[in-house]
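Example 233, ligand 2'-deoxycytidine-5'-monophosphate.
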Amino acid sequence: MHMRPDGIIIAIDGPAGAGKSTIARMLAERLGYIQIDTGAMYRAATFLLAREGIDLGDSTAVEHFCRNIDIRFESVSGRQVVRANGMDVTDQIRTPEMSLLTSRTSALKPVREALLKSQQQMGRKGGVVLEGRDIGTVVFPDAEMKFYLSASVEERARRRCEELTLKGEPVTLAETIADVAERDRQDSERDIAPLRQADDAILIDSSRLSIDEVLTRMAALCRTKIRTMELTQ
Ligand code: DC
């Protein structure tokens, strides 16, 4: 297998709240790779659809609209900013309402097709850590390294609850468990690119592991892979 120009592709898939974003960011930092948060791209597209008041049931309108969306990441003073058609939507896309709405829009074919193309474009040279639901199965089935990061529903809800409370958006644990379970259901039951572990992905259950333990394990596996590929060039 040939090395891509900028390194390998690392795919991290898994359900909401398993710690993918934190791990992807830290792993990318350690390896000097670029992080691509595909969930943020679905959220940003959802923000634009909602802002324009596009009827999600009208697939022609959705398709038409999706042809002209431009979502990109920028680094501003060390912070990753998400831009949707030029607007900074980094914070607005993180509300519980946006999370639930994104579960719906990400099941729509035109939305997935538009984002799939730009994700493949962004990652094809390698040197990237892509996180999402379908990276190892659909976006880059040929990724050199695939992880499936999971944790129990209760643990994932507890983490999300803590995160939102810290941000000044208090929610109850019971509410969050229900939200997480509902998103799991929507993400894994949809027809197109459902959440699923790729056959060749390494399963990591983070329920009882610290971020550091998960990261150390994943970074070691990635470094070994990179080294092996460099040696066989
Ligand atoms: O990872 P996240 O919570 O930011 O993802 C938001 C939503 O987008 C979630 O409902 C699943 C969906 N998503 C997807 O369908 N495919 C991806 N590759 C990434 C996210």
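Summary: The mean pLDDT is 94.
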